[in-house]
Design a protein that fits this description.
Blueprint: H1 2-57, H2 62-87, H3 92-101, H4 103-109, H5 111-126, E1 134-137, E2 140-147, E3 151-155, E4 161-165, H6 166-171, E5 174-176, E6 182-191, H7 197-210, E7 221-227, E8 232-241, H8 245-263
Antiparallel strand pairs: 1-2, 1-5, 2-3, 3-4, 6-8, 7-8
Helix pairs in contact: 1-2, 7-8
GO cellular component, one term: plasma membrane
Domain Mechanosensitive ion channel MscS: 114-179
Organism: Parabacteroides merdae
Length: 279
């Protein structure tokens, strides 16, 4: 019995020593992996800042700068993950083989992101828009802030940040309002039936002539557009420099409203004529 107790004591001591040794080795492995992660993140941040600084000094399209910066960050993050896995004791060759064996499944899962990556390359190659342009796409309008490897970031007029997949932008319809230096501004003003069209046209011409932001070439266009149910509609078309579009649009609206009231030109209200049949 004494021998058995002694053997059991030695067995437990050996197990405890083995557990302590393995625990210490595991703890050291975790510490190494954690240190690799921390140092890697610091290096990635330094490299990202260095690349941004170098790109800023170069005369490179801002769209390319944001795309390259995003691509470098993703590549470095993948390398960091592989380094951390290696620090944990997993053979990187085995890890790579595991990724290769799961390549089909991963490819199917990431097919959307691969399409977005290809879309980003197409955008940079054919340049349907660039950073700073105001575009409308996928039912959203905004100023392009960044073109990343998977998404393009738009800032809407009410300061919302919208992320649109590059795949959708490269394959769908995109309206670029900033590509041309000039834009046409259109209005349709309705006046009462019985108003003198020549008088209304002369008043509008005077309003337009006072606004120096409106271009004279091409010349402004004013015409009687339609005889609507309750109004005579007059269409007005002028050309302005693209940055002045909204200021001119709202400014002329205000000027027309004030001047029409001053000149006694009436705006119409919806009207319904009811005919009663006498018995």
């Amino acid at each position: 019995m004494i021998v058995t107790a002694i053997d059991l004591s030695h067995g437990l001591e050996g197990i405890l020593n083995s557990l302590m040794t393995q625990g210490a080795a595991l703890g050291w492995t975790l510490i190494k992996a954690f240190l690799v992660f921390i140092v890697g993140r610091l290096l990635i941040n330094l490299v990202n800042k260095l690349i941004k600084r170098v790109l800023l000094k170069r005369d490179i399209d801002p769209s390319v700068k944001t795309f390259v910066g995003s691509l470098v960050n993703v590549v470095l993050t993948i390398l960091l993950i592989i380094s951390v896995v290696g620090a944990l004791g997993v053979q990187t060759t085995s890890f790579a083989a595991l990724l290769a064996s799961a390549g089909v499944a991963v490819g199917m899962a990431l097919s959307g992101n691969l399409a977005n990556f290809a879309g980003g390359l197409i955008i940079l190659l054919f340049k349907p828009f660039k950073v700073g342009d105001y575009i409308e796409a996928q039912g959203t309008g905004g100023t392009v802030k960044e073109i990343q490897i998977f998404h393009t970031i738009l800032a809407t007029p009410d300061n919302k940040m919208v992320y649109i997949p590059n795949g959708s932008l490269s394959s769908g319809a995109v309206t670029n309002f900033s590509r041309q230096t000039t834009r046409r501004v259109d209005w349709t003003f309705g006046v009462d039936y019985g108003e003198d069209y020549d008088k209304v046209k002369a008043v509008i011409e005077t309003i337009i002539a006072r606004d120096s932001r409106i271009l004279t070439d091409p010349a402004p266009f004013i015409a009687l557009h339609a005889l609507a149910d309750s109004s005579v509609n007059i269409v007005v078309r002028v050309w302005v420099e693209s940055p002045n579009y909204w200021e001119v649009y709202f400014g002329i609206n205000q000027a027309v409203y004030a001047t029409f009231n001053e000149k006694g030109i009436n705006f119409p209200f919806p009207q319904l004529t009811v005919h009663r049949a006498d018995n």
